[in-house]
Specification:
The structure is a homodimer of 418-residue chains.
Chain A (H helix, E strand, L loop, with lengths): L1 E7 L1 H4 L7 H11 L3 E8 L3 H14 L2 E5 L10 H8 L4 E3 L1 H10 L5 H4 L7 E3 L3 E2 L9 E5 L2 E6 L3 H19 L6 E9 L4 H8 L9 E8 L2 E10 L2 H19 L3 E4 L4 H12 L3 E5 L5 H6 L9 E6 L3 H8 L3 H7 L4 H15 L3 E7 L14 E7 L4 E7 L4 H20 L8
Parallel strand pairs in A: 1-2, 1-3, 3-8, 13-14, 13-15
Antiparallel strand pairs in A: 4-5, 6-7, 7-8, 9-11, 9-12, 10-11, 15-16, 16-17
Amino acid sequence: MLGEIIAIGDELTSGRILNTTSHFAASQLFAAGHEIVAMVTIGDEPDLIGQTLQQALGRADFVVVTGGLGPTTDDLTNAAVASALDRPSTFYPEIFKKIQAHGNTLSANRKIFLEKLAWLPEGAHALHTEVKSAGYFLVHDGKPVFFLPGVPHEMKELLLETVITRLAVWDGEEVRKVRQKLFKVVGMAESEINRKLGHLEGRDPRVKIGYYPVFPEVHVNLTATGASAVEADGVFDKFNQQIESVLGPFVYGSDTDTLEKVIGSSLKERGQTLAVAESCTGGLLGHTITKAAGSSEYFLGGVVSYSNSLKERFLGVNRETLLKFGAVSSEVARAMADGARRQTAADYALAVTGIAGPAGGSEEKPVGTVYIGLATPEKIHDFLFNFSGSRGRIQRQACQAALDLLRRRLLDYELRTV
Amino acid sequence: MLGEIIAIGDELTSGRILNTTSHFAASQLFAAGHEIVAMVTIGDEPDLIGQTLQQALGRADFVVVTGGLGPTTDDLTNAAVASALDRPSTFYPEIFKKIQAHGNTLSANRKIFLEKLAWLPEGAHALHTEVKSAGYFLVHDGKPVFFLPGVPHEMKELLLETVITRLAVWDGEEVRKVRQKLFKVVGMAESEINRKLGHLEGRDPRVKIGYYPVFPEVHVNLTATGASAVEADGVFDKFNQQIESVLGPFVYGSDTDTLEKVIGSSLKERGQTLAVAESCTGGLLGHTITKAAGSSEYFLGGVVSYSNSLKERFLGVNRETLLKFGAVSSEVARAMADGARRQTAADYALAVTGIAGPAGGSEEKPVGTVYIGLATPEKIHDFLFNFSGSRGRIQRQACQAALDLLRRRLLDYELRTV
């Protein structure tokens, strides 16, 4: 189906806030097989809201409107819609009751505005039976129009839980079921993934495969639809299996997984611990590991040995090794990993030493040269990477490569150099 | 003036790419005193491009169009504009000559497309005499229309260098000069800044003050215009001085400054060094410091002592202190800072220990409790903060507060607890 996305809010047209919700809606709707005619962002202007909605209804099969649904006086979407579509504002006592129940936690100051949330254009249906958040839909000129809150997490939840499903039902006038999965891929370029999965694209009209680079990862979205849940499941399972078998260990997880969470779960399961020794990443590796809640169960900490003296003092790296091979070398990466593991008594230690730039490169070791050491209870590994890009991008790639090597080691996959 | 922003590209409507250029244009145009009617994003569809442009010309005083100007066949903006505005595609030999000169570095494969870049709608003027990048403007129905490339850095450069200046000239039919500055504020909430600067707003029609929360900082934008450079400078200087005097040491820098760069410059200038000891930030503090290129000149590194055993082993924190006061305490923050400074022989050491959550809080020390220690050549300071928000937000606030304390110490400002 052809869709149009309208985002409403003065904070968007003044550039105060970056509009990420329209982008999220477009990518999800596209992945679900729809095409977006236009994404329009306008301020809280009743006339303009009405005109924009009319225009969208004239050229799209469905419309998603976000923002302007709140209880304060500058939220004008509902009144504008009521007027533009000639659907008088109507009080919905059922919605008001639920809002009141939910609103008990609000301050008195906000409560007086709550009644406004229950005045919606005639023909509106709440999107969520729980009325956890504002959001409704109505059918106008035979086309579904969805009104979602502008708050990103509320909007995203309602879009995924209600809009995509309702559109799937609408499409083709039959109840179509949708199954979706986001594959998270590490260590393989988008073009390579594309090449490997190309033969699956367009093979079945019920299937869509989308590619989303989320530096330094690539995410692959699989959407399968069917007239019944059984059909959708069957199509999904077939393609899911094929993508998994083609990408193999390069897929580290799916949907809400992160590399650090996957590693954390694996370490927790084994009752093992991890330490780090960082040079060019300056703390990014430790920070990434501790983004996962509960990481204190398996992460002991480590050393940011930015200077050579700290590599000696905290990690016991030999001064001769530093002088002979240089701080950016496989020998020092190994010694750092070994030192971090011994000093902390962790089961595993990751070490990163490299040249993040912009200065410090040489012909022999250009900017982007990064050595990673991995010390395990059995042995010490070292790996050489040649990254490119800005200082920040090199740091992020180095951090991700280190985590991926540990993941492969924990899951018994081949340890490879990119 | 009233403006409209149109972004063109299938990669935007499919959600593959997040449109950040429209947001950048809106915020810069808004700061320069313009208002944005609408921001419209559409695919590479000639008819829709034409209609959208016509609509924009009908309701705005100027239009900024981005994207679709490239040399490949899917870039259709110029042809669509030529047709919609009835301005036949015209070959501009001057532009072609410059493109050819510039294009010598391109592959043969790309060169054959270059001629396309010199075919523009009748009445077009190159935006840049260097023709470094695609980009032109024309005046239609007495309104300026700007066509900019979709590549963010090219678009941003042309917008700032040519569009904003030309609009300033256009506005009021006189050459208006613009001066702008972004104040970067740390440790003061947006509402508080707003309250303190409120008396300056609306006092002079030549001045605009805007507030942009960039968590955990707040940026304040000052734009002053004048009929001449002298007038603009005079207005700018007056308001600049007033903002500086009101916000005082809460302003850590301006425009492209970052907190870590400001600290780095100050340390470099003094020939002094810094080390860190991190617990709840897990490496974020070190990582932030090493975001600044050249940080190895003053940053020695440090310890991520996530576990108590590492606090003892690497930093020499007393086991009794840990047991008596707990790892999250002013005593341990002091001991960590002192230990990091002694062990690394740095001039300054920052230590962070706290509860980032979501678990681990207690009634006495809820999630968000963070102690920061600062060891200097003269003494050891400690500070208690109570942050709120998600784990990630607490970590970022703790990191920023630590850096800000060091900045205040280096610049001899009062050291305060927020």
